[in-house]
Amino acid sequence: MRGSVPVTLLPSVSRARRAVLSAVLCAGLALTATACTEEKPDPDKGTNGVGKLSADEIEKKARAAADEATSVRLSGTLVSKGGPYKLNMRLKDDGGTGSVTSKENTFALLRVGDDLYLKADADFWKHQDDGKDGGEPAAPTQADAEAAGKLGDKYVKVPQGDPAYQEFRGFTEMDVLLDGLLGMEGPLSTGERTKVGGVRTIKVQAAEGAGGVLDVSLEGEPYPLQFARAGGKGVLTLGEWDADFELTPPAEGEIVDYGGQLPKTSD
Known about the structure:
single chain, alpha+beta, 12-stranded mixed β-sheet, 30% strand, Lipoprotein, signal
């Protein structure tokens, strides 16, 4: 029409491209919004819930679970004044069985009720004067060697009146060992979540780890599963909680009843 402004129409292809671009932008914005509002996975999903508690509450629950348990396997390395030694014991309310290995010796222990048996090789039973009184160390005598030969690799019944009875029995006492070895020193805090033997755990640490670190199970009962003792004094693993096992005395032919008091040993 004369005098009107000419109008240029956009090709249909351009309109299609703009529509596609708009749709892509909208989809992208929608995905971004969804990502922003998506909830993070719940770390306590499928657990026993102790991970939500304070460090002191977790430690109390772990102690209570250990106190109520009827049996446990305790293994690992301990460091004492005499040096490191390995412990591998199965323990229950009425006894225990396993082995203790020091730098010089390995001996097996078996307690059924109040009857305590000790088994070691002949070298364990050889008495040797170590020269602590100022003299030169003396080798075992012939009598020592003969006595040791009779006791070696036999279950020696430890007399209850022997001074060593309570010391050896302590290795077979479930409550005594747990109370004595799982002590923590300092204020408690929670640490990282990890796994011990494939089981999810949460760490409770004393004095930021210097006073001991306890791994507590996040699955099932909140049992202690691992403990790193304060001052680098060893690491213990605890397992087979409430898994019953049989305790039976050795056969008569395997037992030596030494009498009122054990001979002195090399350890």
